[in-house]
Amino acid sequence: MKLKLASGLAVEESPINGKGCFATTHFGRWRKIAPYAGEKISNAEAKRRAGRRILRICGIDHRWSLDGSRGGNGTHYINHSCTPNAFTRTLYGQLIFFALKDICPGEEITIDYGHTLHPDSKRCRCGAASCRGTINKIGGA
């Protein structure tokens, strides 16, 4: 089954981790990139699935999450970076990616995951000079 990618996105090998999500068009600062797509599941189900080796689950609110590994649109390949070029907002029950700064074609789209279902020990591989060393923000970080 072929993945239906959101417009303006491509999935390619990433220098950060495995595959990544790359821009195929220019995304101006504050411009909408795409919504996160996937199976809508309860947060209890998200915690149950959290034992997977590769986790593609994003929280929407205190009750619901989306599992991008089922019905994703390529945004589930957006990797973490401690110096991201994008961010997310939840609007009307949808998790939407926006450009934090201008993103040029060929540039990998990244966000700061903040707090996830990953264990706090999960190492960050973003390579940024200011890398905090972990995917999750720990303590007051």
Could you characterize what this model shows?
It contains 1 helix and 10 strands; from the N terminus they run E-E-E-E-H-E-E-E-E-E-E. By secondary structure, it is mainly beta. The longest helix has 7 residues, at 43-49. The model has no long low-confidence stretch (mean pLDDT 90).
Question: Summary?
Answer:
By secondary structure, the protein is mainly beta. It has a domain of 72 residues: SET domain (Beta-clip-like). It has one helix and ten strands; from the N terminus they run ββββαββββββ.
Any idea what the CATH superfamily of the domain at 9-38 and 70-111 is called? Answer: SET domain
CATH architecture classification name of the domain at 9-38 and 70-111: Beta Complex
Strand order of the largest sheet: 3-9-8
Give the total of beta strands.
10
Q: Summarize the biggest pleated sheet.
A: 3 strands, antiparallel
Residue fraction in strands: 25-35%
Number of helices, where a helix is a run of at least 4 consecutive DSSP H or I residues? 1
Low-confidence stretches: none
The chain-level mean pLDDT equals: 90
Helix content: under 10%
**Distance between termini?**
40 Å
CATH class of the domain at 9-38 and 70-111: Mainly Beta
What structural keywords apply?
mainly beta; Beta-clip-like; 3-stranded antiparallel sheet; 10 strands
Write the layout of secondary structure elements.
Blueprint: E1 9-13, E2 19-23, E3 32-35, E4 39-42, H1 43-49, E5 57-59, E6 64-67, E7 79-80, E8 86-91, E9 94-99, E10 110-111
Parallel strand pairs: 7-10
Antiparallel strand pairs: 1-2, 3-9, 4-6, 5-6, 8-9
